[in-house]
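fold description:
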Amino acid sequence: RGEAVAALQASGCVAWGMVSILALTPLVAPLLLALPLPPNYQPLLLGTAVFSCMPTTLSSGIAMTTAAGGNSALAILLTVCSNTAAVFTLPVVLPALLGPGVGSALQPSLLLRQLLETVLL
């Protein structure tokens, strides 16, 4: 119970976590796509760029925090909050950061609808 209370009181940690997960980490995507690698590496770069835009997962966010002796309640809070917020941010962030080649094929309104359907159903 103490970890949960500490997590709820750590507003600065939660704010920093949300900003780093939803805003800073996705900024890596355009840098990855700009790497001058041969064409056969482009699928790997695209996958890594998309991965950088995704929110924290249970395995990386909570399991590693627990293994390192961190506040697992805070990790759960960040994972739940960042995944909930990502439903609304990803449809805008992905097309913007993946550039004209891939990003233009993504329709934000369609992505938002599909994510909402997946989450709510």
